[in-house]
Amino acid sequence: MKIGVIGAGYVGLTTSAVLADLGHQVTCVDFNEGKIAMLLNGEIPIYEEGLAELVVSNTKAGRLLFSTDTVSGIENHPVILIAVGTPPLANGSTDLTFIKNIVERIAAHAHSHKTIITKSTVPPGTNEWICQVLTEKGLDPGSFDVVSNPEFLKEGTAVHDSFHPHRIVIGAKRREASLLVRSLYQKIKAPVIETNLTGAELIKYASNAFLATKISFINEIARICDAFGADIKDIQRGLSEDPRIGKYFLQAGLGYGGSCFPKDLSSLVSAASEKGREPSLLLAVRNINETQADFYLEKLESSLKDLKGKQITVWGAAFKPGTDDLRSSQSVRLIEKLIDHGSSIHVYDPVAKLNRADVTSHKDMYDSVKNSDALVLATEWDEFRSPDWNRVKKLMRGTLFLDCRNFVDPGIVRSYGLIYQGVARQ
To answer: What are the UDP-glucose/GDP-mannose dehydrogenase C-terminal domain coordinates in residue numbering (predicted)?
Structure first.
């Protein structure tokens, strides 16, 4: 199948490479000339495990092309997949500017039947609106199909997730359009859920909202455990053995971040409010997450007394391991709060680059801790699990180690003369 993918960002590039690897002829189009120039030179603008190899191999095989020509991307492909950004507005609703731009271009340049697949995460009702706009712009309703096919990729494991999804969701008005989209993934073994356009949109939102809820729930329980002197690891283990609850997304820590959970939760809250529904639970989930960094800030203040003038090293800037994504990173949120309190911040992350004038970034994890009063683990990269603690202790000025992800064995850290603090860890 010839597929034109509009958008070479995280979702668009990954989807393009995967579809090409499945045997389709894919052209990935983006307005950003610099990004396309990089891709044409074999350079990958984002870090995602396995993605570079997938892009290079399929480019060499001739199945994956890159272009800035949106018109050609629309005219020459019977299937158009929209994977452009849908960033949040100041009020929490979704900015659909990029979606509107692409829809107008499709209306102007679709001279044959098009199956338009929306991969971007959009508020409920958006795909119905796309159908309406295309018709109002003069396209015959029989000359196009709009299909909602949301992505469920996890940054850091996106390539693996694409080939081994837990489910494939397809929302369409016509059975023929749904079958066509199913055929794109025929080599992938996964349950297929067919629904209407709005149903598919809400499956995506509900999935992310539920996962965010689990994270905020365990963080709330961790705060309670901290007050009572209980170990949250015991509670997590007790919960995870119940099959009704499950073991995933029950790790207490700094909270969720990234390009999906914060944005999608706020968008769902906004959409519900517009319909006169007050999403009280979702508002609480968001509030817990937004105050989680304050909880750790208080721990630092309690131990160091005055944060002003203190040198604090933060290990990890990305919102999670396996990615260089800094969007809505809870680590960055904590760093900003420490800066506001007058601390001098030194950061080491093996992949993510935090380019700020008020932060000293390091290329070596041990260099980053020299003369620091405290060390904060904010992102659970594997290399942070068992560093040379004796070396860390000798390089630091202070002895406080704050484990914001409950990632390291407290006993090991303490055996080297460091003070271990996590959340509800004994």
So the answer is: 313-410
User: Which amino acid belongs to residue 70?
Assistant: T
- Any known ligand binding at 15? no
User: What's the pLDDT score for residue 294?
Assistant: 97
167 is in an annotated binding site: no
Residues in the chain with pLDDT values less than 50: none
Architecture of domain 196-426: 3-Layer(aba) Sandwich (3.40)
Contact (Cβ atoms closer than 8 angstroms) between residue 126 and residue 15: no
CA angle 74, 78, 84 (to 5 degrees): 50
Residues pairing with 48 in the sheet: 323
pLDDT for position 156: 86
The response to whether 323 counts as a known ligand-binding position is no
CA-nearest of 45, 26, 13, 29 to 158 is 13
In whole angstroms, what is the distance from residue 275 CA to residue 292 CA? 30
All residues at 6 or more sequence positions from 175 whose CB lies less than 8 Å from its CB, including other chains? none
What is the amino acid identity at position 161? Answer: D
The Cα 140–Cα 129 span in angstroms is 15
pTM over 0.85: yes
Residue 407 assigned to a binding site: no
Q: CB within 8 A of 5, min separation 6: which ones? A: 12, 15, 16, 19, 26, 27, 28, 29, 73, 81, 83
Residue 316 φ/ψ region, left for φ over 0, alpha for ψ in the -120 to 50 degree band, beta for the rest:
left
DSSP state of 87: P
Cα–Cα separations (whole angstroms), residue 290 to 212, 271, 334, 341: 12, 20, 10, 18
Domain 2-194: which CATH class?
alpha beta
Residue 396's pLDDT is 98
Backbone phi, psi, residue 333, to 5°: -60, -45
Report the DSSP beta bridge partners of residue 346: 313, 360
Alpha-helical runs (H) found in 280-409: 280-304, 330-340, 389-395
User: What's phi and psi for 394, nearest 5 deg?
Assistant: -70, -35
pLDDT in the model for residue 426: 81
Residue 155: the pLDDT is: 86
Report d(CA 110, CA 108) in Å as an integer: 6
Among the listed residues 28, 131, 225, 260, the single catalytic one is 260
User: What's the N-to-C CA distance of the chain in angstroms?
Assistant: 57
Give the per-residue pLDDT at 135. 97
List the domain boundaries for the chain. Answer: 2-194, 196-426
2-194 and 196-426 agree in CATH topology: yes
Check if 260 is active-site: yes
Q: Is 282 helix (H, G, I), strand (E, B) or coil?
A: helix
